[in-house]
């Protein structure tokens, strides 16, 4: 048997991304179980956090998810292809003049300003649903509090077909941050001013802030894809993403030899190195070089030297299983997306949404 078949390396040479759709579905159920009786939506913007919009959205629909959020109109149109019946909300709102395209595809804008509300009201006349976003502390998108509580005197919410009132939490992953209580209180005030409209506040981490944050619709993204919504506690979610690369070649270097661009790493003793088939062009962050690790047959091996566009060098001296064609794990097992993000000086969200399009992708249950 050829070595590649023996080791599971893909002869197409690239790194391999395996996405566990069964784990996405299980995570969606687990998040919903935090608030029994409250429907759980799915945020699938940015190609479902890099995991593939079509595959993820289709799987979650089969699991019973009926409401989806994306950021862009273009993403919503792609989601509509796989979700003919779902409620699909466009978080980034109503693009100027974009109303007809939204209406034709039965998409729902998240109206982020009075101007958007008025524009949609003229098109909808109460027939086309939309969400209304009120900013309770982010100062990013959404009506200001004073604009929202002044709305009851106007016919705009009814004419714009508002069927969901929403806001977004600033720092729900830090449960002690006083901003959470302030936003929960502000959102309750908005809902009292506009009675009769269902509300949605909680992102992944917000779901774990308790019942006061739950309202009528949960809105998780990151945790669906295995990210830890409670960073101060063990991750309650199942891992979704596994990233593996074949070792292209191994070599021994003597003490004093350098490796990688600009020779930023120097061997202190005789070391065994392995070169992997992925790099920053695949979305593996170049800044991950300093602290990054990959697992070879279960042994954590440090990344050495600069990460190249298409290649990464590992110190596999402690990993006897390292040889041409063997697989190294860059995300998976003890290297979860949060750990990989931290090692690169960023967050797991950025690791997921940066997952490259040239990986050989496999979807499993
Ligand atoms: C991205 C986003 C979410 C999902 O947040 P996660 O932290 O990924 O769960 C929810 N609501 C809004 C408005 C968002 O932009």
TrEMBL record:
Statement: the UniProt record of this protein carries the keyword Isomerase: yes
InterPro entries: Ala_racemase (IPR000821), Ala_racemase/Decarboxylase_C (IPR009006), Ala_racemase_C (IPR011079), Ala_racemase_N (IPR001608), Ala_racemase_pyridoxalP-BS (IPR020622), PLP-binding_barrel (IPR029066)
Positions bound to substrate: 140, 309
Keyword NADP belongs to the record: no
This protein's UniProt keywords: Isomerase, Pyridoxal phosphate
Residues bearing PTM N6-(pyridoxal phosphate)lysine: 45
Pfam families to which the protein is assigned, alphabetical: Ala_racemase_C, Ala_racemase_N
Reaction(s) catalysed by this chain's protein: L-alanine = D-alanine
SMART domains linked: Ala_racemase_C (SM01005)
EC number: 5.1.1.1
Pathway: Amino-acid biosynthesis; D-alanine biosynthesis; D-alanine from L-alanine: step 1/1
Cofactors: pyridoxal 5'-phosphate
Segments forming domain Alanine racemase C-terminal: 240-364
Catalytic center residues: 45 (proton acceptor), 261 (proton acceptor)
PANTHER family from the UniProt entry: ALANINE RACEMASE, ALANINE RACEMASE, CATABOLIC-RELATED
Similarity annotation: Belongs to the alanine racemase family.
Its job: Catalyzes the interconversion of L-alanine and D-alanine. May also act on other amino acids.
Record protein name field: Alanine racemase
Provenance organism: Methylobacterium jeotgali
Name of the gene this protein is made from: alr1
